[in-house]
Amino acid sequence: MSSIRLFILGTFAQHGEMHGHQLRLLAEEEHVSLWTDISVGSLYGAMKRLAGEGLIDVVRVEREGNFPERQVYAISQAGRRALVTIRHDGLSQFTIKPDPFDLALTRLDPERLDELPEVMEHRLALLQLQLIEVSRLNARALPYLSVAEKFALNHREHRLAAEIAWHEELISEIPAIVADEAARRKVDAHV
Questions:
Q1: pTM of the entire predicted model
Q2: What percentage of residues in the chain have a pLDDT greater than 90?
Q3: pLDDT higher at 181 or 187
Q4: Is residue 88 domain-shared with residue 154, that is, in the same domain?
């Protein structure tokens, strides 16, 4: 499921015709980069790909004042059909991407095990700061959101809280992790 395809097609279906700059402004206004995996700068390239696939069409070219000509797009019938599938997939599929941290945790440097507690405490502190910032931003946005938007923004907050709880559990097990790694190192040295 592609978030950027859902955002672009959904936006055209909801708001009608617009050019790339209008779409970008809307994405910035909605702060999509804070609660999705969409980079606002990637919208133009994605629009070109969608146009190439026939999911959006150029309906006209317009020029305002001294600004360059802009192509105005609209969602096509094929785009509307694709949007039905993308929306369904977005709601029904579940995705948690692998975190490189997990691999790094299983490949610790035996010469630096004494640094592990400090590194983990620092990581936890960064997550806690991120949760504070997300909570602050969510609280500011709350009065302007629909019920569905409130749940979407709160999802990130809940994920961060769960990540913090997991890190706290991990930190409590650092002595056992260090002891296990040291024991493995001794076994590997004898083999």
A1: 0.75
A2: 63
A3: 181
A4: no
